[in-house]
# Entry
Amino acid sequence: MYLHLGNDTVIRDKSLIGIFDLDNSSYSKITREFLTRAERERRTVSVSDDLPKAFAVTDEGVYLTQLGSQTLLRRAAEEDIF
# Structure
């Protein structure tokens, strides 16, 4: 199965580790360091040019998406990913 992250970007359900709200999770220093490191290592993919609202962590990297975390979680539930 696949999860649609927006703008023709899909990820395999088996590679998905977690979905996180960018506003709430970016308060943590550890999360900010994680995202900075992923970007430095070029493991970050921006799904849209819009301001990201959430990010999905996968085996391949981090996907920044304009869709909200609740939308992504609802889609994942519909696909029985979580």
